[in-house]
Design brief:
The chain has 158 residues and is of the alpha/beta class. It has helices at residues 48-60, 71-80, 94-107, 139-157, and strands spanning 17-19, 24-26, 40-45, 64-68, 85-89, 112-117, 131-134. Helix 2 runs parallel beside helix 3 (94-107).
């Protein structure tokens, strides 16, 4: 069952921890803010548990998220419905990511991509993404990157 959490519905009286049937999460700082620009995010992640956590983080900030487990599946999803942003958190090598990101942009020109990797911010890790987030990551950094790219996309469209 997919949980939909909207940051706009949160109030300052929230508890610091939310418990579901199987998981306990600590609410990040951004849960009390309201986000004006909602983004449609495609998450590429192979780890099921991490997928659930990242979905929860993104949806909790008021954005829509779809997930695929493998980069080839992402091409199919991109062709079916173009997202605003792709969050790429796959174990692919730098060169594989560079080729995949290029192929994603062939399908959706101007696509914004966030690359999550253990050494993502190191200059030698350039994969052609628009933003890089080091792992382990902070939820605030991921949401800030998504919102920055969503704002850029909105400004570009107007």
């Amino acid at each position: 069952m997919k949980r939909r959490i909207c940051a706009a519905s949160y109030s300052s009286g929230l508890p610091e921890t939310v418990t579901s049937t199987s998981d306990t999460f600590t609410l990040p700082r951004w849960t009390e803010r309201h986000y004006a620009a909602m983004a449609d995010v495609l998450l590429i992640e192979t780890d099921v548990q991490l997928t659930r956590l990242i979905e929860w983080i993104i949806e909790g900030a008021g954005h829509q998220v779809r997930t695929v487990a493998r980069p080839p599946d992402a091409r199919t999803e991109l062709a079916a419905a173009a997202p605003d942003i792709v969050v790429f958190n796959s174990g692919a090598s730098r060169d594989e990511k560079r080729l995949l990101i290029r192929s994603f942009r062939d399908i959706v020109p101007g696509l914004r991509v966030i690359d999550m990797d253990e050494n993502a911010s190191h200059p030698s890790h350039d994969t052609g993404a628009d933003d890089y987030i080091d792992k382990p990551f902070h939820a605030d950094d991921l949401i800030a990157a998504i919102e920055r790219l969503a704002r850029q996309r909105t400004e570009q469209d107007t």
